[in-house]
Design a protein that fits this description.
mainly alpha; four-stranded mixed β-sheet
Amino acid sequence: MKNVFSLRAIGSFWIVALASTAPMTWADDGAAPRTVSIAPMAAPDPMLRYRFWPAAEHRQDRDPMPGVLRALILMHSAVANAADDEPNEYEQHFQWNELPLDQLPVDDVHRSLDRFNTSINELMRIENAMKIHYDLGVEALSVNETIGLLLPEFQDMRMLCRILELKARLAILEHRYDEAIETVRIGFRLSEVASQSTPFLVGRLIGIAIAERMLQVVEAAVVQPDFPNVYWALAALPSERLFEVRQAIEFESTLLTKMLPGAPDMSSPTIGQDAAASQLLDLADQAHGVLVGTTSSPDDDHRAAMLMMGMYVAMMAEPSRDGLQSTDVWKNRAGELSDCEAVLRWTSLRLRRFRDQWEAWQTLPPDVFAASQSQRWMLADDSESRDLAVRVARELTPSFQQYLYNLRAYQHRSWLMTIEAIRMHADQTGELPATLEKLSPVPAWDDPIASGPFVYQRTDAEHATLTRASTSGNDVDLTVQLVLKGKS
């Protein structure tokens, strides 16, 4: 049985967690759009007076990870020292962060945050530490060692995120806006640490989830009538460090080719029955670990893997020859191959095809990718397959849906920047813009899912609707009603 802190288990957890952090996720039962009240607000002077990312002159060449790890230790210590009759702090923070700002139990929140003060102070020290170096030696790990890697510190970063989120929300409620912005800045730094400390996609997803929670805090802030305009603070966020998943996708795609390090390529000479059988046994050991897991008895695992591979060769020998005959290289020579070599070559080719197909689709621009669901080949569609290559590929490649999570983060930031651009325009003109193209003094940002502007329709000088593109069939609250209020 795999530990709950394994790479795979954390990935499963954060798939669920990310699904709950997409912007504007409110129930949509066909009722009128949710109303969002905004007030006119000019850009600050100077424009980057408020920052969600450290200014260049403050950045330091030191590692933030020690500070994060110390904050985690102090956080767990605070919980361990709590009285037995006190509620679970982690669960309490989660529940409080789901409440509207005006429903926060202020005194209880203050007391809880006081208990975590030493952990918070330690975390605040990572603000300007920009050199992330957390070498887990993952490049040297086998496939099974990689997917079984324990990462409890990444699981626990979500708890630090909840503390920061609660601290920032309380500061917003109490109009301590400088403190709220500083706390959000630390949250984005924590997001980068989670995202960039390892090459794993799960690290990127955790980082994106943390960034999304910070964007949710900003969303709660910008509807406060006297909250400063943070258009430029949002623009200055390094999206390639916080939201981008391309490098992680490329790294994880290597797990498939890592299954067959010595497998012959399509044009190489035949290697014979014995050499092919030896490589298939190596593949069997790795595939058994991926599909079944490992036990305390390596010998028993190896025997089970040998049995699995023997059955697989018997089942796939002829289909493998038929498959190879469909290729230019082997169409006239597949019959020359032994059973083991035919299965090895066909399995190797299919794993490489799966890897390339999975990686290639995710190189498309966001709007093309989001619109191509019916054309994308998805391993999940073949969930009942007994084919070893399909089963291994399905286990080692995350679903295409995970790619959309980073697009949602890009979209959420652009959505907030568009609202802030509208607030600037209203400060200059006293009304909502006629169209997004008529905005001044700063432009709205496009919806990255649609690769075009958000859909905006003004009803009158004080009312308009703003609509974002859907990233899946399950998106809700795609449209909100903007209502312009007077300055505080």
